[in-house]
TrEMBL record, chains A, B:
Name the UniProt record assigns to this protein: Amino acid/polyamine/organocation transporter (APC superfamily)
Entry keyword annotation includes Electron transport: no
Keyword list, A-Z: Membrane, Transmembrane, Transmembrane helix
Record-annotated membrane-spanning stretches: 61-79, 100-122, 142-161, 168-193, 213-233, 254-273, 304-325, 358-376, 382-403, 415-435, 441-458
Organism (species): Edaphobacter modestus
Membrane topology: Multi-pass membrane protein
Annotated signal sequence range: none
């Protein structure tokens, strides 16, 4: 078993595909981690904006989160329908393309690609930030730690979807389980104490009230920030193909479990925070704790359970990046099936995965992590935009879909759900865009059109190539003529002999070209007669032409190129085959000992040549 | 006129060579600057070691420098004879190789290469050090300034030897002229004042005496340090070929002028220092000035002449690196003519220079400057070793040379001069090695054998290639058989048609190979009958064989390689030509849109293939 096999698993045959499909238990960690971990930062994101209102802010947080949960339910129903309607997967991109046209599809594609790359980068760096807060000695190594986690995620994902699910099940259930325990125990305390629970540890006091009234602008910003809690919900719809049969049903059930769990976590955390009088703290405060930490301490104190909960949150956050690894390659494949991205994304690697998508995601994530030195917290506003753009397009697409399915029972009800969802998420998108524009959403607003232009250029290239290459006509056998064979020859040696022998088999029309520099004592003429002409004459074969080109300036390549191009020009309709002897050395460093003119000539012949010039490499093994 | 022509000059024809040869006036700056500038630091290097003796040290400095001058005269006569005996140039390397054998030649070669690279690096950084002492704001940019000077030197040298001479004549004569003025005026003052000249500005007082007696060890170290004054003397002997006819005579005269000037400068500076009671200062002293600066101030005061002199010293020092540019390429050429270095060093570039030697020197010098951050003062001890090793070998070689020239008049006298020189420089070499071993000479002692091993490996490679390639036998025309042509084909399109047409011209024996992956809906079979077989049958030509290889694991390259290698194995004595269609895109980035399997296959065929497998590139221009 090779090292590659140990690291990435043995290669899988195409017929193994069925066995690689996953069930619901593996589907939740693979496609749900990104959505579920939103519970860890979503409520806090909204509560942070209410800090200036002090304790009064708590009155507004439950309504805001409830509004977000209603939106979440709408989006959930919409995606459930999408999964049923498009069991081939592809999510927003497919739905938008098929129903709203290529333009809307590209918009969704660009939004989702940005979303996934940011999910990977932000997830990893969020985990590492939590880790370095706990162990400050690691602070200077955060970028390295981020990159190590990225490499580990890449390797795990290159092993295939089944192994990935197995690896992530425990961290996911630990995360969900410990948060549920906090919520359940907190709720029990609340009711046992008659609505006035006594915290084990008193939470830090709320900040002084500096803003008295909730303005519309503040409400919008709070709502927009809280919407971060909804990212990741579209993941399942992109990955339907990964599930075992009955595919759509299993995917739907996975999505249902994920969304119900997410609703419980989001509402539970928010409601308990209000019940215990917990407000968010300024992140710059010297004794800063996040809301989850304060809440867990209030309910359980600082015992082993506190550390278990915090540890599982940290682990789940950094693994949430994995959802991007599960979806990005599938998305890239769907896009390149329509010729909008390089075709490599369609190829499946040794483990039946779209490996190039994984490489691309790893590359882009690494670039972002390096650019921002592993501190990607500022990127969080960017990626709600991508998610909501995808939500809106997907649901608008579904409306058109139902319009077309005239016979489908309950079509109007489905259409109503999707239309309502499209309008709601569309409005949210505008709100988020306005509220977060200066904070960084403008970057996404620039990147999306940029990506769309790239995809259109790629499409144009492929369309042209297909048009030019397509040949459904039968083989054309007219005008089959021997090529003119050109053999550049510096001196008479064994590789020159090999080339000449090969040339004589290929064609009767041979030109041996010798570029003669004034520096050299003698040309080929000396040996030409005895060594070359004589044996050929004896066999009665046609004698090759010796072309000697003088070169005053010791240039070899240019006169040779000029000669070949002229020859081609003067013999319209004939092919010119250039035989290039090539020394193959035993060790790479030996290449430095031979001049690389042949490589340069090959390159120039490709660049300056045309359809009628063919290069034949005659290798000589040293 | 292109940009290249403006920067490097128009290309020169081989027949222009005569016009590129130089006379004595250009020879002095090109080959003499390194030797002449030794006057600026040689006496000081010796005097620095006598600082602990205080004013008493002055009694010893003139005898030490006199001993060095005697050695210099011996070496001078020796090199004069070498020039006459070897008008083809090559200096120590050629002399040692021809008379003492290849081993001694390699030793000289390694020593000289190290010497030249260090000369370039130390020269440039010495100049920059002087500049940054004068303008401390530039201190943080010293490495950048070093590299800029290196690039300028490279460009000037790439223009050719004649232009280089012209550029350097004025700085050289300014340097020599101002130092001569100092010496002449100082001497006149000395005699006019009856042996007790009155300095215009009183020199700093000598250090307190801490060492009373001159020990043998201190004398040895002083002598070894002063020997730095002799470096660069071998330069002319390496460059004899650059001179116009009568070549040897002009080179000898150039060498004579250089050495006589150097002797005057060295003795003058040393003797006047004693006369004016000037001792060296600790380089770490806060008001440090070098001996030249103190001497010039004592004789002329701090007027414009002082600044002219100091400026010309600075300029000459940084240009002294140029001697390495003049000699290194010629040395590399001589070594690679014996197959000990890559043959590129033999090629002459567009300006009739051994351009690759210039590139190599620039590269190595840049590496050293970057490694040491432009502070290369510590490298000075290293390069006296190289110079003296070359002196000794060259003169020992000349002894053998005279032994063989039995008829030469005055042979015994010549032999005596060279033998005396060899012994003297040999002893000096040992003294320098011992005195400077810990200070850095050990680096040279390690580098020399390392370089020798590299040169021997290169030689072994070339010898093997020559043995294997040499073919003085006539063209062998037996067993001229058509190759088996293999055409990998993924689908039937226009480039496949082009390849097939070319293959049919090449051979009757065609194999169209289709690797069929389970992922793909259909193979080639569908179109094979109608589109390919039918027209061929109609023309009555031989039908190619369709080979379909199933691939469960979606690998394309491996099954194809296996098939080709097996085919070759089963058909001993036949050539196998693999026709590889290659898309040539219009813009480089378009390559990312096509998979690069063909490139990989070409590479694998070269690496795993053998003498009987030939690759034919069929280009298709998009």
């Amino acid at each position: 078993m090779s090292f590659t096999d140990v690291l990435f698993g043995r290669p899988l045959a195409s017929s193994d595909e069925r066995a690689e499909h996953i069930g619901i238990a593996a589907g939740i960690p693979i496609f749900g981690l990104d959505a579920l971990t939103s519970a860890a930062y979503g409520p806090e994101a909204a509560m942070t904006l209410l800090i200036p209102m002090g304790i009064a802010g708590l009155d507004h947080i439950v309504p805001v989160i409830s509004a977000i949960l209603i939106l979440l339910v709408i989006v959930f129903f919409s995606y459930r329908q999408t999964i049923e309607a498009y069991p081939g997967g592809g999510g927003s991109y497919t739905v938008a393309t098929e129903n709203l046209g290529a333009g809307a599809g590209l918009l969704a594609a660009a939004a989702l690609m940005i979303d996934y790359i940011l999910t990977a980068a932000v997830g990893i760096s969020a985990g590492v930030t939590a880790l370095t807060s706990a162990v400050p000695e690691l602070h200077n190594h955060r970028l390295s730690i981020c990159l190590v986690i990225l490499v580990v995620l890449t390797i795990v994902n290159l092993r295939g979807v089944k192994d990935t699910g197995a690896a992530f099940i425990i961290p996911t259930f630990l995360f969900v389980g410990s948060l549920l325990a906090v919520i359940v125990v907190g709720t029990v305390h609340f009711y046992l104490s008659g609505g006035h629970p006594v915290p084990v540890v008193i939470p830090p006091p709320p900040a002084a009230t500096t803003v008295k009234y909730l303005t519309l602008w503040l409400l919008m910003k709070t709502f927009a920030s809280g919407c971060a809690a909804m990212t990741g919900v579209e993941a399942v719809s992109n990955g339907v193909m990964a599930f075992e049969e009955p595919r759509a049903k299993k995917a739907q059930r996975t999505l249902s479990i994920i969304v119900v769990t997410l609703i419980v976590l989001l509402f539970g955390i928010t409601w308990l925070s209000k019940a215990y009088g917990i407000t968010a703290m300024e992140p710059e405060a010297h004794n800063y704790q996040n809301v989850l930490s304060i809440l867990t301490t209030a309910i359980f104190g600082r015992g082993w359970f506190y550390y278990l909960t915090m540890g599982s949150v940290l682990l789940a956050l950094s693994l949430s990046a994995n959802t991007a690894f599960a979806d990005f390659p599938r998305l890239a494949r769907a896009i390149s099936m329509h010729d909008y991205l390089p075709h490599v994304f369609i190829l499946r690697g040794r483990r039946l995965l779209y490996s190039h998508g994984i490489y691309a995601l790893t590359g882009f994530t690494a670039i972002i992590l390096i650019l921002f030195g592993g501190v990607t917290d500022k990127l969080i506003p960017l990626y709600a935009i991508g998610a909501f753009l995808a939500f809106t397009l997907s649901q608008a697409g579904m409306v058109v879909h139902w319009l077309r399915m005239e016979k489908h029972p309950g079509r109007l009800w489905h259409m109503f759900v999707n239309a309502f969802g499209a309008v709601a998420t569309g409005i949210t998108l505008v709100v988020v865009l306005i509220a977060k524009f200066m904070a960084g959403a403008w970057v996404t607003a620039l990147l999306v059109p940029f990506l769309i232009v790239i995809m259109m250029v790629v499409k144009r290239h492929y369309t042209r190539v297909k048009r030019e290459m397509k040949d459904m006509t039968p083989l054309n056998l007219t005008n089959l003529q021997e090529p003119i064979v050109v053999i550049p020859m510096a001196r008479w040696d064994r590789i020159a002999e090999k080339a000449l022998r090969f040339g004589m088999v290929m064609s009767q029309d041979l030109k041996v070209v010798h570029v003669h520099s004034d520096d050299e004592p003698m040309g080929l003429e000396e040996e030409w007669g005895d060594k070359i002409i004589a044996p050929i004459q004896k066999e009665g074969l046609r004698i090759p032409e010796l072309v000697t080109i003088p070169s005053n300036y010791r240039f070899i390549i240019n006169p040779l190129m000029d000669y070949i191009l002229e020859l081609e020009h003067n013999n319209p309709g004939r092919k010119v085959a250039v035989l290039l002897p090539e020394l193959v050395v035993r060790h790479w460093w030996e290449n430095a000992l031979h001049n690389q003119r042949v490589q340069l000539l090959k390159l120039l012949l490709l660049l300056k040549g045309n359809q009628r010039i063919v290069v034949v490499n005659i290798p000589w093994y040293l």
